[in-house]
């Protein structure tokens, strides 16, 4: 906890100049870095929410301002492979992304598990359904995170370590997506009960991911605290609210959330390790 608070104090200082998301600066590093970086994961790794997207990535929706691409752009000496894909589940990462790993790989990041936990259906049910339906969805997600997700992620992380034995592996987790205040979320604004339920599910997800990283011996990177006070529906959000014309981006970080906050946390970890 002390380390997280220390990181946050640096982050607060770095963001003290209120830079709008459209002109977000990117963290930089002056020391030369070499090696091979492979980015794995789902929409939170590909940068959904920070469009426009690389046309070559198709339905995977890889944004130039995703945290993997931003970090790689700041470290041009590192060979980079972006395997991330919107909608990816654990089995998709295993089947379609792990093939990029090798003994040459020196850095791996991964964000996955949210789709396995039912992120899309939970968001839909909590935005358009009753309190009872929202509670059912979030309780089911929380149960899955505690009882199934840990084992599945630990197995995946162990495979990553076996395929890339020379790599540092950082698991970039998920933030709480919604502010528990009363601010508008856009087209639809969930009530206080639904917001609490969604954040409880996010907490169970984060703790499930943390447990899996501890079991597999990889590094968990906490993302709930860095976004605290800047979730969707807050006064200064780093996560997108509800825009009916951009459904796939709902409750995903915006450009600032990825290119600054996520990238900053990854940079802090790679500087230390």
TrEMBL record:
Keywords recorded for this protein, A-Z: Disulfide bond, Signal
Q: List the disulfide bonds.
A: 60-85, 126-134, 185-233
Q: Give GO MF terms, alphabetically.
A: triacylglycerol lipase activity
| Residues at the catalytic site | 43 (nucleophile), 252
Q: Which InterPro entries match?
A: SEST-like, SGNH_hydro, SGNH_hydro_sf
Q: Does the keyword Secreted apply?
A: no
Give the top-rank taxon of the lineage listed in the UniProt record for this protein: Bacteria
Which interval of the chain is the signal sequence?
Answer: 1-23
GO BP of this protein: triglyceride catabolic process
Which named protein is this? Lysophospholipase L1-like esterase
């Amino acid at each position: 906890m002390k380390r997280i608070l220390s990181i946050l104090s640096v982050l607060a200082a770095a963001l003290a100049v209120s830079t709008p998301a459209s002109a977000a600066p990117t963290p930089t590093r002056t020391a030369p870095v070499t090696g091979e970086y492979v980015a794995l994961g789902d929409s939170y790794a590909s940068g959904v929410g920070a469009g426009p997207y690389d046309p070559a990535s198709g339905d995977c929706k890889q944004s130039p301002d995703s945290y993997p691409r931003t970090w790689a752009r700041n470290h041009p000496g590192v060979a980079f492979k972006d395997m991330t894909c919107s909608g990816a589940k654990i089995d998709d990462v295993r089947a379609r992304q792990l093939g990029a790993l090798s003994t040459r790989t020196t850095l791996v990041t991964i964000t996955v598990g949210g789709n396995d936990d039912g992120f899309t259906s939970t968001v839909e049910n909590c935005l358009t359904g009753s309190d009872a339906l929202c509670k059912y969805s979030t309780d089911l997600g929380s149960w899955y995170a505690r009882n199934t997700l840990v084992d599945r992620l630990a197995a995946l992380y162990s495979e990553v370590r076996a395929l890339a034995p020379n790599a540092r592996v950082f698991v970039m987790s998920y933030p709480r997506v919604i502010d528990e205040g009363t601010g508008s979320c856009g087209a639809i604004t969930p009530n206080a009960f639904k917001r609490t339920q969604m954040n409880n599910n996010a907490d169970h997800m984060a703790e499930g991911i943390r447990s899996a990283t501890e079991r597999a011996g990889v590094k968990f990177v906490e993302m709930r605290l860095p976004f605290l006070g800047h979730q969707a529906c807050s006064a200064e959000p780093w996560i997108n609210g509800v825009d009916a014309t951009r459904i796939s981006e709902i409750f995903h970080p915006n450009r600032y959330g990825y290119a600054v906050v996520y990238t900053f946390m990854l940079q802090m970890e790679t500087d230390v390790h």
